[in-house]
Design goal:
The protein is mostly helical and 218 residues long. The chain is built from ten helices and two strands. InterPro entries: Homeodomain-like_sf, HTH-type_TetR-like_transc_reg, HTH_TetR, Rv0078-like_C.
């Protein structure tokens, strides 16, 4: 009996999230009617209030679902890369490029921040920073990047990628903006990488002392 109740609750939540996601992704949060998407799910406003509190709570649930899907996609991108460094770069770039996708653009990077506030303060952001920190730690251990505080680098990369996605989502020319953002982001990340042919590159793009001495040698 308890199992049946659990399944019914999960089914109701899933129906409401699916209906809201469709509405938020097409007409936007402001224009989406609670009556329309509750009726579309064959439910009532009472069910929405019971499970999510209000329309804002439902948006939060939709964002959590999309965020989980984005994370799974990004994990597949990094796993398919030929090296850990390339996987890290391509994962970061893929996140930025997702801001071109209509549903993600509208819900995650336009309506989400407008309704729920600064994206850097969302609960999911801590998980993103933790994952970035771990990836950077592994890269540093392998000697693929310079010796840098992983948390600091993770927070800077997270902030830059989020800002880039927001810029794209709100741009009059999103395709052009995306290309500029990706090119710039790749250049920034390159500053972390160790150039094995010349020695480590510091975070400002200069060379380590050994490289400087080599250049000064007659």
């Amino acid at each position: 009996m308890r199992r049946q109740r659990h399944d019914m609750i999960a089914e109701t939540r899933a129906k409401l999230i699916a209906a809201a996601r469709q509405a938020f992704g097409t007409v936007g949060y402001a224009e989406a009617s609670m009556d329309d998407f509750t009726a579309g799910a064959g439910l009532t406003r009472g069910a929405l209030y019971h499970h999510f509190g209000d329309k804002k709570g439902l948006l939060q649930a939709v964002i959590e679902e999309i965020d989980a899907e984005m994370t799974a996609r990004l994990n597949r991108v990094s796993a398919a890369a030929p090296s850990r460094w390339e996987g890290f770069v391509e994962e970061c770039v893929a996140y930025i490029q997702m801001a071109l996708e209509p549903e993600i653009q509208r819900i995650m990077f336009r309506d989400g921040p407008a309704v729920l506030g600064d994206i850097s303060q969302w609960p999911s952001n801590n998980g993103c920073i933790a994952a970035l920190s771990e990836s950077l730690r592994q890269l540093r251990t392998e000697g693929a990047i310079v010796d840098i505080d992983e948390e600091v680098a993770a927070r800077l990369i997270n902030g830059a990628s989020s800002h880039a996605a927001l810029w794209i989502a709100n741009s009059d020319k999103p395709e052009e903006t995306s290309q500029r953002a990706v090119d710039g982001f790749r250049a920034l990340l390159e500053g972390l990488r160790v150039d094995n042919s010349r020695g480590p590159v510091d975070v400002m793009g200069g060379r380590e002392q050994s490289a400087q001495q080599e250049h000064e040698t007659p």
